[in-house]
Write a structure and sequence with these properties.
This protein is an alpha/beta fold. It has twelve helices and eight strands.
Length: 251
């Protein structure tokens, strides 16, 4: 399967739909090496402009998928590949393959609740474990505990730490012996009902951010005002060749 790419503000994005993304993830699982996949949206791309470590983490991923309609539009794609939907599609479409899933992230108890809900939805799901990390870097003992839980025991490690933490975490944990790590952000909270999802029409028209803003305006208004405005300005600069955006990677 030949993958084509496009660049948005110095971030390399894979031009894949859901079906091809699922097949690519399965290929990663089979090849015996550790891979990681980012679900890359406007927030991630914009934050990477002032955070070189984030841009390196995005561009070092085996796949950076277009999570967000503006990113899909930038690549002239008809649809995005968003984390919550990719999680459900992958789990349901590969239910009979015997893949072992591990859920890492969320507040206390969220990962276990997520696993239980997905198991109810898809009884064939194999849950290899869950882990809700503290809101700080893991100690050496905790890192060793996590490695013992997942090494050679996990095919798909779902990471729900939020951007930019999860992207940097996956880059730093490529030493773990798992098939593939996927940073799916708020999917943990969406699928456990802690955050309500926007209506489909808002998702398809690129207005999901507006729905999120109405849910938590005091926390999110600065982020969306800054992020969306800056993204539009920088994208215009890229389109008019007024600024060069270099791709950074640690490969």
């Amino acid at each position: 399967m030949q993958t084509t790419y496009f660049e948005v503000l110095g971030v390399r994005i894979a031009a894949l739909d859901y079906g091809r993304a699922v097949r690519a993830i399965e290929k990663f699982i089979r090849d015996g090496r550790t891979h990681y996949v980012t679900l890359t949206n406007v927030h991630a791309v914009t934050e990477s402009q002032s955070d070189p470590a984030l841009r390196t983490a995005l561009n070092s991923a085996d796949l950076a998928l277009p999570d967000g309609m503006p990113i899909a539009w930038a690549g002239k794609l008809p649809d995005r590949v968003c984390g919550p939907d990719l999680m459900l599609k992958f789990i349901t479409e590969t239910a009979g393959c015997g893949y072992r899933h591990f859920f890492y992230g969320g507040a206390e108890g969220v990962a276990a609740e997520l696993a239980a809900r997905l198991k109810k939805l898809c009884p064939q799901l194999i849950v290899a474990g869950t882990y809700c990390p503290p809101f700080r870097p893991l100690s050496k003992a905790e890192e060793a505990e996590l490695a013992a839980m997942v090494n050679d025991k996990v095919d798909v490690l779902w990471v729900g730490l939020g951007c930019p933490k999860q992207e940097k975490w996956m880059l730093a944990h490529r030493h773990l012996r798992v098939g593939v790590m996927l940073g799916v952000g708020a999917a943990f909270d969406f699928h456990t009902g802690r955050i309500e999802r926007a209506p489909r029409w808002m998702q398809r028209t690129g207005l999901e951010w507006l729905f999120r803003l109405t849910q938590d305006p005091r926390r999110l208004w600065r982020r969306y005002l800054k992020t969306n405005t800056l993204f539009l300005l920088l994208w215009l600069c890229q389109q008019l060749n007024l600024r060069r955006f270099d791709v950074a990677t640690s490969r």
